[in-house]
Amino acid sequence: MKSYRKELHFCTKTRRAYLNITPQVEAALAESGLREGLCLVNAMHITASVFINDNESGLHRDFERWLEKLAPEKPHDQYDHNGYEDNADAHLKRSVMGREVVIAVTDGRLDFGTWEQIFYGEFDGQRNKRVLVKIIGE
After folding, report:
1. How far apart are CA 73 and CA 91, in angstroms?
2. Distance between CA atoms of 110 and 102, rounded to whole angstroms?
3. pLDDT single digits (tens) 20-40
4. How far apart, in Å, do the first and last CA atoms of the chain sit?
5. CA torsion through residues 127, 86, 52, 103, sign
6. Which domains does the chain have, with CATH numbers?
């Protein structure tokens, strides 16, 4: 078995964002040369997420509204965590959206279902963040 590791780097211009990172993950898979195995993609920060869903802008706006209802950013003083940083809501949003995804690799391609794409969810942006792509297989 072989493995391949690559980091993707992001710095969003806004506090919250949803980025389709499927092309970057597909490029990492091509670089790896692996044809069969598993691809792990995970956020390396506690206020960001990686998830799979449809690449549809209305759905992304729905995520934003839903998450803001679950864990509104303001008022900041509603959270015990806030103090040094006012990002407790980002921690909660990440908990809901998840840390990572694992995708099967078949014949050198990500083995997706219909409409599936990989997204990076940023909940406390405007700073440098990393996503790990780890591919294992043959």
Report:
1. 11
2. 10
3. 999 999 999 999 999 999 999
4. 6
5. positive
6. 2-137 (2.60.120.460)
